Amino acid sequence: MSEPTREAQRLQTWRGIQAAAIRLVAERGFAAVTVEDVAAAAGTSRRTFFNYFPTKVAALFDPDPELADRLQELVDRAPRTGDAWADLCWICRGVVPRGDDETLALRRRLVGDFPEFTEYVGAAHRYVERALATWAQSRFPADPLHVRLLTGTAGAALSAAFLTWQPDGSTGEFADLLDRALASVRVDPPEPAQR
User: Does one domain contain both 143 and 52?
Assistant: First the structure.
């Protein structure tokens, strides 16, 4: 059996630290867990923790390094119909897990308990907005206003659904809220200007 590559080892360490942080915070609560606790639970040092994450909040919320690639695959597989909004909604629905996801539920509870985390979560997940913007740009290269409207509206629907979701329910309820949000707002291409 071959040795894991350096990149695979780094990813394994990254995931191990995040898994330890999530498990400990789920068991003890955010305030009762230190960086040292997380490092020890992950079988690493405080220094190694900080080589991977700048803060305890980052260890809890930073997206898996491979998520951007998975999102790009989703964008590449997206339908390309005459209804760009429906196609973008398909991508947004693919971003939200449909099964139970204890990590997502914990993150939502933390944002509810610590509203100051909301800004960090938004920044950490900008890759979703960037992927949606790239997709919209490919559909409407000559209309930057429409690109921004599509991207901003879809991002707002994702955010509103996440922040409205009560994590005591299933992740499916989050997906249902997203469906409602996307159905409530619709961004159609502008009509050609009359001359």
Answer: no
